[in-house]
Give the backbone structure.
Amino acid sequence: MQIELDEHTLAWQQRVRTYVEQELIPHEVAAEMNGGELPEQIMQRIQHKALELGLPGMDAPSSQGGLGLSMVDQVAAWEMLGRATNALCWCFPEAQSWMYEACADSQYQLEHYIQPLLAGRAREAYAITEAESGSHEVINTTATASGDNYLINGEKWFVTSGNLADYLFVQARVSEGGDALFIVDMSTPGIELVENPLFSHTFPSHHPTYRFNDVAVPARNRIGGTGSGMDYSRSWFRHERMTIAARMLGAASRMIEEATEWARNRQIQEEKLIDKQAIQFMLADCSTELWASRLMVYEAARAHDAGTVDLKSLHVRCSMVKLYTTEMANRVADRCLQIWGGRGYRRDNAVERFFREVRVDRIWEGSSEIQRMIIAGALTKRGLDGM
């Protein structure tokens, strides 16, 4: 049940799958039992292997030293990366294409912040969510011009990977109107860690809350022109929603494969578990929804590469694939855990970890409800043919 891909994409996808199976999956249980952390030597190894593959530069332009991959190739890679639990596939930074576009007029920004991501020498985190916003585009954090600096004041919630970041992309309101993005070094005075709560999943990347108290950021660290902040944030959202969707394909595939193998071998009163019709129906539903999800994700990726739809339509399609695949993966996790029975509830079982981990994918980078609002809004304004 594979999507038809060309030989280049298949070979690339297989290289990433080999990396996942050899370098990530063997360390999942150790990470789970140690707060998401792995020994430094192991982390250095898996990060080095990621760099060798060029994973930090999948979306970076080839003219800048990146791989410049198509969205289909990126989706093919992230599908394989999604097979690992405990966010071990987040072991590398990403130099995304929107960053090069946003920083195109600043050689300083490119050299000091973006290229180090590509080389694996720096990590970034995105600070957009606020107390009153959640998935809505509401920004109350302010950036006030003061000489050669901007003074940033406000609070950002759920700054994923903030604990590992060297700098943040911070979205703030500016005095001339609209939003702007700023690159803020984590070492800048005035950044206050408010809390770093524990979450259901066991990731090395945390989701802290930060308060900005007159944080002085050089004007040269402002990204793009006036009012462009949300444009770049939407570019980031589209990319994240596509890669989340791809990861859901990998997660669902692994859960179905392992549940099927378990059911084939599990003996119940002189009968294999897989011979029970109830189990067959659950696996059939999982497989069908996975197939539908794959078709959606790869079709959206191909439309992205072909440039056959406008940006608004592409935005809607990214919402559709995130909505459907994340809901699908949660249904698959529930069914597969049920097939495993009591063993499925053990933390050393991948389905138990996926059961906790994929739940947040229906929330972050825009909740399922926000995706439905985007889709319904486009339908109202443009009709089915315009989506």
